[in-house]
Amino acid sequence: MSAWPEHALAAASHRDPYPYYLELARRGWARDEGQGLWLAASHAAASAVLASPACRVRPAGEPVPAALDGTMQGQMFGRWLRMSEAPIHQPLRAAVAACLAVLPSEEIQRRAQGLARRFLAERQANGKGLDGLADFLPAATLASLLGWPERSLLHLSEQVAALCRAVAANANAAEREAGEAACQMLNAELSTLADAGWLARWRRAFEVLGEDALCANLLGALFQSRDAGAGLLAAGIAWRCAGPWDWRDDAEWRRRLRADPVLHHTRRFVAEDVELAGQRLRAGDQVLVLLAAAALDPAGPGEAMDFGRGRHACPGERQALAIARGALAALEEIGPDWEALDGSMVFRGPPNVRMRRFGAGASK
């Protein structure tokens, strides 16, 4: 592998992209003509883009990807908090935040640990088994807390994976068709769950916003947990392969995520001419916000950026860390061959996620 990533979109799967990121962070802004992108790499540049109302999560005039227009996936996508720029964004954020805040971290961790323990009891704790655990556990834990029966969680995680593949920019027709079927199936299963516990809390929070917004954002939470949650869990395993570390401490997770992030970038679309952190941007420009570079910026405050900043920051940091801690607790009970896992590790996953794979190295 080259000593330097080919470009910013290839950096997350590079063996060591951090010297490259550090150089970009020191420059602040860069233009990648080959990819047609501005790179916001310093902490100041990244923060300015994430805070600016001129920089949107979707292109102007295309709130839903054209390939998903007219599908249930498209309808769900357009209602997700993560993709909303409309006035409903603030009420959506308040409702989602209220729902996520109500569950204690300890309860989430216990549920994740129990699910991981049972998942691993039926599989070897080798590379393939741990890849499967990373793919399964984040969405399965949230779904279990919502009331999905345990017998259906493996299938649910596979359907969430199909939805993720369908929404990707490079999805083909077969993947989009599979994603549409998965979306319909997940929505139908959601309607059969008992209106109790955590799901009842979601329903109360979304009472004014309506059933469509509720269903979309419940599925959106499962969708968002999948790749980022798998990357976080796999990172924790990789760090354990290198030696014991205090995975029980959230502050230690954040320290490690600053030096070795999981989510490396996010994209923004410029809706109007604007100057941010000394760089003039034009309507129609695309900006790749290099969260991994911004975290390393010597001029920045020295903080992890994996969960974003500003109005589109991910509200699920506490839940994601609790799930990862639960997985590592279950793994410590088993005591896998950490050294062998370390030797088999490769980086392969979505362009924005530093995804470790310990088995065949292929993403599901």
Automatic annotation (TrEMBL):
Domain of life: Bacteria
InterPro entries: Cyt_P450_CS, Cyt_P450_sf
GO molecular function, one term: iron ion binding
Family classification: Belongs to the cytochrome P450 family.
Record protein name field: Cytochrome
The organism of origin for this protein: Chromobacterium alticapitis
Source taxonomy: Bacteria, Pseudomonadati, Pseudomonadota, Betaproteobacteria, Neisseriales
